[in-house]
Amino acid sequence: MIEEHQIKYRGVKGIPIIKAEEAKTLKTGVWRTFKPVRDKKKCIKCRLCWQLCPENAVKLDKDGYPIFNYDICKGCGICAKNCPVKAIVMERDLHGG
User: Is 11 a residue whose pLDDT tops 50?
Assistant: First the structure.
């Protein structure tokens, strides 16, 4: 958890600025209701899920297949919606994060 003194405010509206290295420690996946699940047999390694993820929750394994970081994935479904071969489906996440 980031403490108040670690956040710097700037601008008229006081928009909080958090350093990238501090943001990496935030686990926001507990907000998720659905999570993406990849079918490796269908995946063509197009990397669209990796490119389009707004949370940077998709990494690539050594073979180029996407891996989801459920600690930061919020379950938005952009990856599944844009998968050209429907290799990613959104499944109910009973545990969150």
Answer: no
